TrEMBL record:
<keyword id="KW-0791">Threonine biosynthesis</keyword>
<dbReference type="InterPro" id="IPR014721">
    <property type="entry name" value="Ribsml_uS5_D2-typ_fold_subgr"/>
</dbReference>
<feature type="binding site">
    <location>
        <begin position="84"/>
        <end position="94"/>
    </location>
    <ligand>
        <name>ATP</name>
    </ligand>
</feature>
<dbReference type="InterPro" id="IPR006204">
    <property type="entry name" value="GHMP_kinase_N_dom"/>
</dbReference>
<dbReference type="Pfam" id="PF08544">
    <property type="entry name" value="GHMP_kinases_C"/>
</dbReference>
<comment type="function">
    <text>Catalyzes the ATP-dependent phosphorylation of L-homoserine to L-homoserine phosphate.</text>
</comment>
<dbReference type="GO" id="GO:0005524">
    <property type="term" value="F:ATP binding"/>
</dbReference>
<feature type="domain" description="GHMP kinase N-terminal">
    <location>
        <begin position="70"/>
        <end position="143"/>
    </location>
</feature>
<comment type="similarity">
    <text>Belongs to the GHMP kinase family. Homoserine kinase subfamily.</text>
</comment>
<keyword id="KW-0547">Nucleotide-binding</keyword>
<dbReference type="GO" id="GO:0009088">
    <property type="term" value="P:threonine biosynthetic process"/>
</dbReference>
<keyword id="KW-0028">Amino-acid biosynthesis</keyword>
<keyword id="KW-0067">ATP-binding</keyword>
<dbReference type="GO" id="GO:0004413">
    <property type="term" value="F:homoserine kinase activity"/>
</dbReference>
<dbReference type="InterPro" id="IPR013750">
    <property type="entry name" value="GHMP_kinase_C_dom"/>
</dbReference>
<keyword id="KW-0808">Transferase</keyword>
<dbReference type="InterPro" id="IPR006203">
    <property type="entry name" value="GHMP_knse_ATP-bd_CS"/>
</dbReference>
C-alpha cells in the first residue's frame, strides 16, 4: 500500500515572532509517498534531497517515530520536491511534515497534531542541526500557528480574522548552510528594554490579525533584534520593506531565515508599484529574482 501526503511552503517568524510563529501558503508544495519494502531499511528516492535517511529531513523524522513506536520494517520514501531549498520557505519542514502525516495514516498511529509536529521537527536536525517546530507546525496545522511550548511541544492554530494576500520576493541568492548561519547570527542576550519593545510589537501584530486591524499589523510587524542581526546577509531588505510600505502594503518581513521577503497586501496596495520598486532595488544589487503571489493555506 502506498500513502501520499503533501505539505505547503511556509514563512516563519513574521517579524517579531522568532521561532514561535509560522504561516502556511500555497506558493509551493512537497509531496511525499511512503510504501513498505522487504529490505528492512529506509530508502529515499528523490532527485534533490539526500539519500541517506540520517541526513534527510523526512527520513530522520520517520526514524524517530519507528524508534519510539518500536516499528521494525523497511520503508521507501519518495519525495517530489516542490518547495525550493535554501530560500526561507520551509523546505525542510515541508518534506518532514508530509512524511510524518503519511506514516501516521499508513500505520493508523492516531498521532495528535502536536505529536506530528514533534516528530516532524526532528527533520530540522538534518537540515540545520537543531530541532525547531515553527515551519513544521504550519505544515501540520495549516494557517497561522503559534508555538506555546517546545518541551513538550504545544501548538495553537490562530483563527485570524484579517487575511491578506501575499507576495513573495525571492532573490536568486544561494548561501552555504544558510539556516545554520542565520541562526548563529541571532544575539544570545538582549537588553530588557528591547525585550519589552519586542513583546509589545508581537502582541500588537497578533491583535491585528485576530481583530482584523490592518494598522495594528503594520505597526506590530517590526523586528529590531533578529532581522537586524541578519542585515549583512540581506542588505536590500530594509529598502524593499520601506518601498512596499510606501506602496501601501500592509507590512513585510523576512521569510524564515531568508532571503525571501514576505509582503502582505490587500485591495489598498499598489502591487504594480511594488513590482517596479523591487526591480529597481534588486537591480542595484545585481540580483535576479522572481515574485510569486499566493494566499494562506488554512488547513489540510
Amino acid at each position: 500500500m502506498k500513502i501520499k501526503e503533501l505539505s505547503y511552503s511556509s514563512s516563519a517568524n513574521l517579524g517579531p515572532g522568532y521561532d514561535i510563529l509560522s504561516l502556511s501558503h500555497r506558493a509551493f508544495k512537497d509531496e511525499v509517498e511512503i510504501e513498505e519494502n522487504n529490505t528492512g531499511k529506509i530508502r529515499i528516492f528523490s532527485d534533490n534531497t539526500p539519500e541517506d535517511p540520517m541526513k534527510n529531513t523526512a527520513g530522520l523524522s520517520l526514524i524517530q517515530i519507528m524508534k519510539d513506536r518500536k516499528i521494525k520494517l523497511g520503508i521507501d520514501i519518495t519525495i517530489n520536491k516542490g518547495v525550493p531549498v535554501g530560500l526561507g520557505l520551509g523546505s525542510s519542514g515541508a518534506s518532514s511534515s508530509a512524511a510524518v502525516k503519511a506514516f501516521n495514516k499508513m500505520f493508523d498511529l492516531n498521532l495528535t497534531n502536536d505529536e506530528m509536529v514533534y516528530y516532524s521537527m526532528y527533520g530540522e536536525i538534518a537540515a540545520c542541526g537543531s530541532a525547531h517546530p515553527d515551519n513544521v507546525s504550519s505544515g501540520i496545522y495549516g494557517g497561522m500557528t503559534l508555538i506555546t511550548s517546545t518541551e513538550p511541544v504545544r501548538v495553537r492554530k490562530i483563527d485570524i480574522k484579517y487575511k491578506p494576500h501575499l507576495m513573495l520576493v525571492i532573490p536568486d541568492i544561494k548561501i552555504e548552510e544558510k539556516t545554520k548561519l542565520a541562526r548563529s547570527m541571532v544575539p544570545k542576550n538582549i537588553d530588557i528594554k528591547d525585550m519589552v519593545r519586542q513583546t509589545s510589537r508581537l502582541s500588537l501584530m497578533l491583535l491585528g490579525f485576530l481583530n482584523g486591524e490592518r494598522q495594528a499589523i503594520r505597526d506590530g510587524m517590526n523586528d529590531e533584534i533578529v532581522e537586524k542581526s541578519r542585515n549583512g546577509l540581506f542588505p536590500f531588505y530594509g529598502e524593499i520593506k520601506s518601498m512596499a510600505i510606501d506602496e501601501n502594503a500592509v507590512s513585510a518581513c523576512i521569510s524564515g531565515a531568508g532571503p525571501t521577503i514576505l509582503i502582505f497586501t490587500d485591495e489598498r496596495t499598489n502591487k504594480n508599484g511594488i513590482i517596479s520598486g523591487t526591480d529597481e532595488i534588486l537591480g542595484k544589487y545585481g540580483l535576479n529574482y522572481k515574485i510569486v503571489e499566493t494566499e494562506i493555506v488554512e488547513g489540510y
